[in-house]
Amino acid sequence: MHTVWKGSISFGLVNIPVKLHTATENKDIRLRQLHKKCHTPINYQKVCPDCEEEVKNEDIVKAYEYAKNKFVVLDAEDLEQLKREQEDKSVEIIDFVKLEEIDPIYFEKSYFLAPDTGGNKAYGLLKEALAQSGKIGIAKIIIRSKEQLAIVRVYQHGLMMETIHFPDEVRQIEDVPNLPEDQKIVKKELDAALMLIDQLTTTFDPTQYHDEYRNALMELIEEKKSGKKTVTSTNQGKKESNVTDIMSALQASIDKTKKKKAPAKRKATSSTKTKKNA
Fold it and tell me: How far does Cα 214 stand from its chain's mean position?
């Protein structure tokens, strides 16, 4: 399993060297976009709408738009320096709370925590302390130059870290338009709804739930493959030119055209004609 972060977690004076592994994966089926005419995959270019020219990566700068069409440009050096200042590879657990006190809206991404070299004993201590206390740890961590609020909790026979949103990243429900006011509920209807909930109540078993759309899409893809209903790009085998360098591509095309043209015959001079007639 790929390690996405290495550092340490501390609570009190206990320091635990750890490694972070992504706990979930995106199973979405990626569909490519092809040119309908020749079935060649489509490329995307970065084009400046003002200059009407393609922009290379080295000509792009980052900026913050503080008002409409007004920007503060941030130099790469500034961002790199800020990153170095903030990139502390240690995580301090600052509080312990109960998991049920955190609403699920705050949860973002899950990671498995594994002990790094020499960290087994302290790792086991934290896991057992969390398990017996029934608490989770609140911590801060910097991942990919972004400071994250996170929780550390017991998961099966190991520890898990889950990044959570800061309060100002969670929108207020009061801002949702057209929410209904308190409705007068008919008791007969409420009793029927409660009965239905009771009948459908069960123990949560995640293995019972499947992505039906993804399964159906894969079945359709496999069916078309087995039926030989596939297409091949007419561009296959050709060397792809660098789409970011338009002038080079144009010049290459011009040079290629020149080579195909046969050299023009030299016009005979009057002296040459005289020799032939002699």
Answer: 19
Q: What is the dihedral of CA 241, 243, 244, 245, to 10 degrees?
A: 50
Continuous segment of H or E residues that includes residue 161: strand 158-164
Q: What is the 3-state secondary structure (H, E, C) of 55-67?
A: CCHHHCCEEEEEE
Strands (E), 106-232: 107-115, 136-143, 146-155, 158-164
The fold of the 3-24+33-49+56-171 domain, in CATH, is Ku70; Chain: A; Domain 2 (2.40.290)
Confidence of residue 241 (pLDDT cuts 50, 70, 90): very low
pTM for the predicted model, two decimal places: 0.67
Average pLDDT over residues 221-232: 80
Q: Which residue has the tokens 């060649």?
A: 40
114 burial (CB, 10 Å; 0-12 / 13-18 / 19+) is middle
> Using the 8-state DSSP alphabet, how is residue 7 labeled?
E
